[in-house]
Write a structure and sequence with these properties.
single chain, elongated, mainly alpha, 7 helices, 2 strands
């Protein structure tokens, strides 16, 4: 009973497994090229998948061939072709990965991508601005005069507690239309004395 179950299970798996065309896979393997920016690790993964679908008797030799023909680095191709027939898959992978790392390091130190820091071209540190507390010419009170306008007058506040008794309150001159500047009070129009 168990052998019959195994036989049926094997048939079922064969039925469900995708049918691969080894000739098409061989064509894809022979025309496979490494994309610009693609890592060697990713490229080797693609090669291994295709080699598996091809049913080669010596897959390592075909992986080496695909790496030589499909590599986007002429330097890597030259190094691999210079080796004799004792070239193994491990040696091939070492050479390709070393070349990839070396190429990336050379790009990092090339003149176009300088990491030099010029201390003379850096901006000075930003220091917080401290308020300048002085006697205000508008309201005769002490506050931050670095502001563009007098804060007490902008808020329509007259500091009665700071006024000297018997002295008039702070009044700003009005403009031509009778409106006051900085939110101060209007000046009363002087009466004309007739003589």
């Amino acid at each position: 009973m168990e052998t019959k179950l195994n036989t049926n299970w094997t048939r079922f798996e064969n039925y469900l497994s995708p049918k691969s065309n080894s000739w098409l896979s061989r064509y894809k393997l022979r025309t496979l090229k490494q994309e610009p920016g693609e890592t060697v690790h990713s490229f080797v993964k693609k090669i291994r998948i295709l080699v598996e679908e091809c049913w080669f008797t010596s897959p390592d030799v075909n992986i080496i061939d695909a790496l030589i023909f499909g590599s986007n680095s002429k330097r890597t191709q030259t190094k691999l072709v210079d080796k004799d027939t004792t070239l193994t898959l491990d040696t091939t992978l070492d050479i390709t990965q070393t070349e990839e790392v070396t190429t990336n390091q050379i790009k990092e130190i090339s003149p176009g991508t300088s990491t030099h820091v010029d201390p003379l071209n850096c901006d000075p540190p930003i220091r917080p601005r401290s308020p300048t507390i002085l006697l205000c010419g508008c309201c005769s009170l002490e506050h931050d005069v670095s502001e563009l306008s007098c804060p007490p007058l902008v808020q329509n506040v007259v500091h009665a507690e700071k006024r000297i008794p018997g002295e008039m309150s702070v009044v700003h001159q009005s403009d031509k239309k009778g409106k006051t500047k900085h939110g101060g009070q209007k000046l009363p129009k002087p009466s004309k004395r007739e003589t």
